[in-house]
Structure formats: C-alpha cells, structure tokens
Amino acid sequence: MADAQARAYPRRIPGKALRFLCNYWIVVALFSLLGLFFDKSGQIPGSWGTFVGNMLVVGMSYNGAWWFVTTYLLLLVMSPMFAALTRRVNGIVLLAVSFAVYFVAYVLRFNYAIEFPNPVLQWFGNQAILLGTSQIGYFGGMVCRKYGVIGSLREYLKDRAVLRRGIVFGLPLTAFAGHCIIHSAFVAPFTAAAALTGLFLAQLPGLVQRIFLLLGKHSTNIWLVHMFYYLVLFKGLAFQAKYPLFVFLLLLGLSTATSLVLQPVYELLVSKRRKA
C-alpha cells in the first residue's frame, strides 16, 4: 500500500500546483482591483507588465511575503525526490546534510550576497538560495514521519501527564526565550519545530481544535494576504490596534475574513475544473 501511494504521489503534484496557483491568482486579481481604488502610489496594480509578472510568478512586486510562492512550488515539484531520499537515506545523515545546505544558503542569503552577470542567472541563483534555506523544514518533517517521532512521543507520554505538560509548555517557552537571546532568523526553523512539537503533543480542547482547523483551512490565504494589511496597500491598518497581541489578532482577523470571502470563489473554480 505504501509503495502504491509513493508511485501515485508524483502524479498528484501537477494538480496540487495548479490548485495553489488558482488560489494565488484569485488573490492577485482581488488586490489588483483594490489597488485601483486604494493605492495612491500606483504600484498596485501598476502597469500591465507588472500585473502579468505577478500573475506569472516571475515578478512578484505586490507583496513581500510572496517570495515564498516560487520556493513553495519548487518544493512541491521536488517533494517526490525528497520523499525518495528520506526513504533510502539514514535520517541522521539526511538531517546533517540538510542542515549543512541550510547553513551555507543562509550565509549566502544574509551575509555574502552573490552578484550574477545577468538577471536570468541572478533569478536562478536567488531561487536556489531561497530553496536552500527552506528545505530543512521539509526534510525535518519527512524524517519525523519516517520514524514515527510524534506518534512514539505520544505513546511514551500517554501515562506521564506531568512530563507531557512540561514538554508541551516547556518546548515553546524555551524556543521563545532562546529567540529573545538569539535574534537571528537562523534559529527560525528550530523554534518553529519546537513550537509545533509542543502543539502536536498537547491535548487541546474541542473548541481550540476547531479554531486551529479553521485557521488551517484558510492558512494559504492568510499567508498570501496578511502583508496587505500592515505594510502594503492598507499600510498600518493592523497597527491601529497599538498593542502587539491586539495587532496580531486584528491582522489575523482581517486576513481570515478576506479568506472567507475568497474561499467560495476558489472552491467554485476548483470544482468546475474537476468536473471538466
């Protein structure tokens, strides 16, 4: 069964990529339209060339958070190869190599920028570096699944409530404290891993689970639109809440509300494609 699923996985990649791009195109279209009315600088939608560049994922100038769009698509296309490597290579060796790639890519991205002789090579070089700083999370998750890390931890902690609570609360707090001391973005994958591990091991109330499921359903749109509400287009809107927690909640609320509007359009287009 596992081998059959592995063989079928690559065939699902084009469909996943197209569904994501459909979601992305809806966001681009909506905020390009809003830009006609609210962007006094004229940067959104800008010229037809700018609009097409954003739609084709080659010149994403509307939103800085979209740097990850191309990286995500590359990770998606390469995930069958990553999965094959994970199945065949020792997990510790794989994570060590992944960390080495991450370290080199991070240094090149933030400390020693490489200048290429023409824009095309520069684009490919930038994408390779971004891919290098992003792949470690992919491999980390795949290795954890290969060895059943979370399942084993849950089983081990099933009758050890005190220890489980200590890990659930201690891991995220330790990650937070560590990041307060080490301000570098270098630690971001590791603080994220600690927080997620604590979340996966927690026994969440039903209401909290439903909230997380709702946010998970809309997470792609939240990522794609959130920057419009504090830095682009509606600049500073989220900061009207003044206090960090309220700023975060307002930003999350605005992004989720936008997704609630966009999601029916996306589902309609995807359902028509499936019927076709």
Care to describe what's here?
The chain is an all-alpha fold. The protein contains 11 helices and no strands. Helices cover 76% and strands 0% of the residues. α1 (2-38) packs across α11 (244-275). The mean pLDDT is 89.
Ordered list of secondary-structure elements with their pairings:
Layout: H1 2-38, H2 48-55, H3 67-88, H4 91-110, H5 119-146, H6 149-157, H7 161-181, H8 188-201, H9 206-217, H10 219-225, H11 244-275
List keywords for this structure.
11 helices, 276 residues, mainly alpha
- Radius of gyration, in Å, reads 21 Å
- Main sheet attributes: strand count, strand direction, barrel closure: none
Distance from N terminus to C terminus (CA atoms, Å) equals 29 Å
The portion of residues assigned to helices is over 70%
Strand content: under 5%
SSE-based structural type: mainly alpha
Number of helices: 11
Residue stretches low in confidence (pLDDT < 50, at least 5 long) are none
Give the oligomeric state. Answer: single chain
* Net shape: globular
Write down the overall mean pLDDT: 89
Number of strands: 0
Helix and strand succession? HHHHHHHHHHH
Short description:
This protein has 276 residues and is mainly α. The chain is 76% helix and 0% strand.
